[in-house]
Design goal:
The structure holds 2 protein chains of 2 kinds.
Chain A (H helix, E strand, L loop, with lengths): L27 H9 L4 H26 L8 H12 L9 H12 L8 H18 L8 H16 L1 E2 L1 H24 L1 H30 L3 E2 L9 H28 L3 H16 L2 H15 L8 H27 L2 H9 L4 H16 L1 H14 L11 H10 L8 H33 L1
Antiparallel strand pairs in A: 1-2
Chain B lengths: L15 H4 L1 H34 L29 H34 L4 H15 L3 H15 L15 H4 L2 E3 L2 E4 L1 E4 L7 H5 L10 H4 L6 H4 L3 H6 L28 H32 L6 H19 L1 E4 L2 E3 L2 E3 L2 E4 H27 L3 H9 L4 H31 L11 H13 L2 H30 L5
Antiparallel strand pairs in B: 1-2, 2-7, 3-4, 5-6
Helix pairs in contact in B: 3-4, 3-13, 3-16, 4-13, 5-13, 11-12, 13-15, 14-15, 15-17, 16-17
Classes of the chains: A mainly alpha, B mainly alpha.
Pfam families (chain B): BPD_transp_1 (PF00528)
GO cellular component, one term (chain B): ATP-binding cassette (ABC) transporter complex
Organism (chain B): Alloyangia sp. H15
């Protein structure tokens, strides 16, 4: 072989070969599977183990769920149908309980002929949050958002239309003072007036005014008591009001905690720590057992309202901590820049600091909201019929005694859909804001 | 350009209180102070008036009155003739028990799931993601109720263990999973330090007023959810569950010495364990010293193991330790430790739920360490295990610890959901039955809130100390 280099080359290619596909095990599904599932012995073992887990779960779950019975009026009948269809002793879901009881699971004991009211309220709610959540929705829809709380309240609880309208008037008064009186009186005085005058109006004028209007033009819906509400209607009302009310309160608390003013700072810290240090259940029991002690003798207001107040305070304390993190994460230069522009405290917060701080804290805020929505199930312990409470009372009836998986799966799925989509929305928001930033 | 600013022309004017930023903050604080003071005094005067109207006073004397109700799980000695204060203490210990067990299991689950979610294996990481999302997005209460229903309704009854073809006990006939709970072996001592009189005093007290399940009907909802679970169990024999259990006894007959265990035995064992591990640590330090001085590291690992194990074994033999396995007698199991369904359901649900959150924290912590750190460690010639221990983990822990603290806090506070399954924690003894029986809502809730507040502050305090020991040391 020593003389090979002396030989002339026998053949030289004069044309390029066509490009070839890469080998089959270097592209596409095969390569992906090799890399992701079978790259090493450990990996192969893990893959096989997890495939076994998936098989074990699905082989039990799918036949049980898919072969389920949907039309039966009670559990005995349901079991008979199953025995006829699949033979004795087959373990199959009895979804009939959902088919029969879903109005109760969704609306509680809301009068059946009035179901259109919560449904309409829900549609209004969806329209109202659309412009807040998605910037592609026309801005004019924001008017719906402004009126929505009153409309929804009126639709769900019923009563005279003039009550909500008179209440709106208070906000209109405050807004009018801010717009027309502020240039003449100075901002500070106008703000004070815009808070004091509507409060006085609500305390002394609102009720009689609504009464007078109602006696002239009676416009009212049938009243529905709070005790009649339950299921997901209840969970949504408490959850949504808690979410809407706790965000501004939480931001205020966070600002208070960051404040230089000693007293305000210390009170915010004390409030946040005390609320966060005690479980929500204890607060709910406080609301149901003790709140009457703290209020003037004879005061007795709705249990749901008390729960909403407690849930709001509770989640506001958590949001305050999340927002505080966002505030702390902002570089000091931003604060100094806002000061250098000559902005006063509220303007600098509103225009410079909070938009950035809130953007940072979006994941935490949404997490808190998800937690709040899940925590609405705890109201079962103070006697309100949330979905879990309703499932227990359905199981206690003779018709459906002994059923549990189906109800739990349904309730769990509903909560999952709601909470999971909140989480996805937060991801979407994060991505959008990041893109806009660059 | 003016070089000297004009001296203020006037003295202090009242309007400066509002318009001058130097004074405005004072004004705001004073106003806030007055408003908050007014609010507080209004609340307090309302409370006083209301209490007067109801003819009640503000008095914690009820804590020393006899409680008169039974608690189905007690870590310390308790019977229904003891005081409300003692009952509250039993509840507190039960809360702490489930919190400690839950934190431990949740950490394990969370770390495993968090690491698996980062796995290269697609299926494994998806499975971990399903676990995390599934548990995070469904209310904890649902999980607790679901696991409880699973335990009570689809597990075999104790009497089914009799037949040959029925369900059998696990782990060498020592663990039985039944619809009344899980029975595991108990460690008993024939020469117990606490003496054996505990066993005699342990006679099951008759269920006095009602079973706990129905007792709590006053606190709404509880009995609706705990469908008789706690009620069934209350009638059972007095063998109490307790992982750190004291006062557990085996039902013995006749005049023979009944093996039992008391808190003192466990305290001694714990002390020996701690002393052993301190000794092992000292051995390691000495070895490091010698290594620095001479360059040779003496063999320490066997010595360290011996330092921990030998005293432990000596103590166990001295106490005459033996395993007391649960045995089927009649319709139920005798002996061993009975972990009630309520405890199991609460423990598993809390751990699985919190574990999902911890998994995300762990994942975030590991992702926060840049890959360059690993590569740098490899370039220095460190092995993967050493890299993990010396380079990655110390840095990841800095990110992981603070949110982990709040998860532990959450778990502890969430243990108050025990009400759903009739587990007798502090909320159902002090905040439930005691309040119902004595009518002392204000005092009871105040004590309950204070307990949770102190516990939260303690946990966060301890964990913050740990956090400051691992955090980045900066100038």
């Amino acid at each position: 072989m020593s003389d090979t280099h002396a030989q002339t080359v026998a053949y030289v290619r004069d044309t390029m070969l066509d490009q070839k596909e890469p080998p089959l095990n270097q592209v596409g599904a095969v390569k992906w599977i090799r890399d992701n599932l079978f790259s090493s012995w450990l990996n192969i073992l893990l893959t096989l183990a997890s495939l076994w887990v998936i098989y074990a779960v699905l082989s039990h779950l799918l036949p049980w769920a898919l072969r389920g019975v949907w039309d039966a009026s009670n559990l005995t009948q349901c079991r008979q149908i199953i025995a006829e269809r699949y033979g004795e002793g087959t373990n199959v879901a009895c979804w009939a309980v959902l088919a029969e009881r879903w109005p109760q699971l969704v609306f509680g004991f809301f009068p059946r002929e009035l179901y259109w009211r919560p449904i309409l309220a829900f549609l209004i709610f969806l329209t109202a949050v659309a412009p807040v959540l998605f910037s592609s929705v026309p801005r004019k829809v924001l008017w719906v958002s402004a009126i929505a709380p009153f409309a929804i309240f009126w639709l769900i609880w019923g009563g005279s239309l003039w009550g909500p309208i008179a209440a709106i008037l208070g906000f209109a008064i405050g807004w009018a003072i801010m717009t027309f009186a502020a240039p003449k009186l100075g901002t500070l005085l106008a703000v004070i007036l815009a808070i004091v005058v509507p409060v006085l109006y609500w305390l002394f004028v609102c009720g009689p005014l609504a009464g007078a209007l109602a006696s002239v033009v009676p416009l009212s819906l049938q009243t529905v008591a709070t005790q009649k509400m339950g299921g997901f209607l209840l969970a949504t009302i408490i959850g949504v009001s808690g979410i809407v009310l706790s965000l501004p309160l939480g931001i205020l608390l966070a600002l208070g905690r960051q404040s230089d003013m000693f007293i305000i700072n210390k009170f915010s810290v004390a409030f946040i720590e005390i609320i966060r240090g005690v479980p929500l259940i204890v607060w709910l029991f406080t609301a149901s057992l003790l709140l009457n002690y703290f209020l003037p003798p004879g005061t007795n207001f709705d249990l749901m309202l008390r729960v909403i107040i407690m849930v709001t305070l509770f989640s506001a304390a958590y949001i305050a901590e999340v927002v505080r993190g966002g505030l702390a994460a902002l570089p000091k230069g931003q604060y100094e820049a806002a000061d250098a522009l000559g902005l006063d405290y509220w303007k600098s917060m509103r225009l410079v600091i909070l938009p950035q701080a809130l953007k940072i804290s979006i994941p935490g805020i949404v997490n808190t909201f998800i937690g709040l929505f899940k925590d609405t199930t705890l109201v079962v312990f103070i006697g309100l019929l949330d979905p879990i409470g309703l499932s227990s009372s359905i199981r206690a009836t003779t018709d459906w005694n002994g059923i549990y998986w189906e109800l739990f799966v349904f309730i769990g799925l509903c909560f999952f859909i709601f909470c999971f989509s909140m989480g996805r929305y937060s991801l979407f928001l994060e991505k959008k804001l990041r893109r806009e930033h660059r | 350009m003016a070089t000297i600013s004009d001296p203020p022309e006037q003295g202090f004017r009242l309007s400066q209180l509002i318009f001058d930023t130097r004074y405005r903050s004072m004004t705001i604080q004073v106003v806030a102070m007055v408003l908050i003071g007014l609010l507080l005094s209004w609340l307090i005067s309302n409370t006083i008036h209301n209490l007067e109207a109801l003819g009640k006073d503000f008095d914690f004397g009820f804590l020393s009155q006899p409680a008169g109700y039974d608690i189905n799980q007690q870590l310390i000695e308790y019977n229904n003739q003891m005081t409300h204060g003692r009952a509250a203490l039993v509840g507190i210990l039960n809360t702490l028990l489930v919190a400690v067990l839950g934190c431990a299991l949740a950490t394990v689950l969370g770390v495993i799931a968090g690491v698996l979610r980062l796995s290269n294996n697609w299926i494994v990481s998806r499975l971990a993601a399903v676990y995390v999302e599934g548990f995070r997005n469904v209310p904890l209460l649902l999980w607790i109720v679901l696991i409880f229903a699973l335990m009570t309704e689809s597990m075999p009854a104790p009497r089914d263990f009799k037949g040959g073809d029925g369900p059998s006990m696990l782990l060498g006939e020592s663990v039985a999973i039944t619809n009344r709970g899980v029975y595991i072996p108990n460690v008993v001592f024939s020469r117990s330090l606490g003496g054996n009189e505990v066993a005699a005093a342990e006679a099951p007290a008759p269920a006095a007023a009602a079973t706990p399940g129905t007792n709590m009907a006053g606190t709404y909802g509880a009995s609706r959810i705990a469908t008789g679970g706690a009620g069934i169990q209350a009638g059972q024999n007095g063998t109490t569950a307790g992982a750190g259990g004291s006062g557990t006894s085996a039902a013995g007959e006749g005049g023979e010495v009944i093996p039992s265990s008391s808190g003192w035995d466990w305290l001694l064992i714990l002390a020996v364990l701690v002393a052993g591990s301190v000794g092992a640590k000292l051995l390691g330090k000495r070895a490091a010293h010698i290594q620095e001085a001479t360059g040779k590291r003496p063999m320490t690992l066997p010595l360290q193991i011996a330092a921990i194990l030998v005293p432990l074994i000596v103590v166990l033999v001295a106490l005459g330790a033996s395993l007391d396995k649960p045995e089927l007698g009649g319709f139920n199991f005798d002996g061993g430790v009975h972990l009630r369904n309520s405890l199991i359901a609460l423990w598993l649900a809390l751990s699985l739920y919190t574990g999902a959150f911890i998994a995300e924290i762990v994942r975030g912590g590991i992702l926060a360490i840049s890959k360059g750190q690993t590569e740098a460690a490899y370039a220095l010639g460190l092995r993967p295990g050493t890299t993990m221990n010396l380079v990655i983990l110390p840095q990841a822990l800095r990110v992981i610890i603070p949110p982990l603290i709040s998860q532990f806090l959450n778990l502890t506070k969430n243990s108050s959901l025990a009400i759903a399954v009739g587990y007798m924690d502090v909320r159902s003894t002090l905040g439930g039955i005691t309040i119902n029986q004595t009518g002392r809502e204000l005092e009871g809730m105040l004590l309950l809130g204070l307990f949770y507040l102190v516990l939260s502050l303690l946990i966060s305090g301890v964990m913050n100390v740990y956090n400051s020991s691992v955090k980045l040391k900066e100038r």
